[in-house]
Design goal:
The termini are far apart. Helix content is 62%, strand content 0%. It has a domain at 37-171. By secondary structure, it is mostly helical. The longest helix is centred in the middle third of the chain and has 37 residues, at 83-119. It has eight helices and no strands. It is globular, with a radius of gyration of 26 Å. The chain has helices spanning 3-23, 43-50, 59-62, 69-74, 83-119, 125-153, 159-168, 188-194.
Length: 198
């Protein structure tokens, strides 16, 4: 077969495979979400919000060594906590749930309002802005409830108890300088570079 024919055949095959690969669409990672009652919230999300759960909103506190009441109560014996401390933390936990449950309901309803407005096509930019502000205000309120109760635990615990909590939760020592040591299995040069060590 002449060289030009082979080249032309190769180009045709290559172009066909490129076209085939560009016309094949994989499903969206959101496929299936259209069946949710509120598209932006899963059933698990709604359940977590309705029971006053943290929903990951307190991670800035939790992962910076500031314990939360729920997990402190779970770990009361391992820390260990004194009877008076347990009573104080139980009180914090009750307050947190009393505040978080209605705040969670407000967030669910705000997300439901956004959902309905899009479904019914009754929306312009001004109304969208209003609905989003309502949702963000509810989320901010809920986040404040959880983060503030984390802050309150520091007034009840000793530094040693906070350190023990973080150890039990499996977190790295939040007080140590990451440049002081290299985790096992890590390249020392890359570790120091990633951590911004001098």
């Amino acid at each position: 077969m002449p060289r030009t024919t082979l080249t032309l055949l190769f180009l045709l095959l290559f172009t066909g495979s490129v076209l085939a690969s560009t016309t094949h669409h994989s499903p969206s990672p959101y496929a299936g979400f259209e069946d949710r009652a509120i598209k932006s919230l899963s059933e698990d999300d709604i359940e977590e919000l309705r029971r006053g759960g943290g929903w990951g909103l307190a991670l800035p506190a939790e992962l910076n060594g500031v314990p939360g009441p729920a997990h402190l109560l779970e770990l009361r014996n391992e820390i260990p906590l004194e009877v008076e401390q347990v009573a104080a933390i139980e009180s914090l936990f009750r307050v947190m749930r009393e505040e978080a449950i209605p705040a969670g309901e407000r967030l669910i309803e705000a997300e439901r309002a956004i959902e309905q407005a899009f479904a019914e096509r009754r929306l312009d930019e001004a109304r969208l802005q209003e609905l989003l502000q309502d949702a963000e205000a509810a989320r901010t309120e809920l986040r404040f409830v959880h983060l503030a109760r984390h802050l309150d635990t520091l007034e009840i615990l000793t530094d040693d108890q906070v350190a023990r909590y973080n150890q039990l939760r499996g977190y790295a020592d939040t007080q140590s300088d990451p440049c002081d040591g290299v985790p096992e299995g890590h390249d020392p040069g890359l570790h120091r570079q990633h951590m911004g060590c001098g």
